[in-house]
Design brief:
Number of helices: 1
Largest sheet: 3 strands, antiparallel
Shape: elongated
Strand order of the largest sheet: 1-3-2
Number of strands: 3
Strand content: 35-45%
Number of domains: 1
Distance between the termini: 24 Å
CATH topology: Dodecin subunit-like
Length: 72
Amino acid sequence: MGEKKVKGYKVKTFVTEVKIFHAMKELRSLDEQVNRFIVENGVKKVLSVSDAATTDNTGATIGLIRVLAYES
């Protein structure tokens, strides 16, 4: 029998701290980090990208978690 090529689905998590008045800069940096990962790792297909905020005990947003699901 011939060899069957199995698609490899993977997940990569990126995190960044979010400081007041610096959020746009931090989001651009996170975008650059994810885009660099996609290029450097030869990602063929992005299945999904999602963001979730992390908060402190007062409910203030202090960080962002970005999850990238992709096909290798």
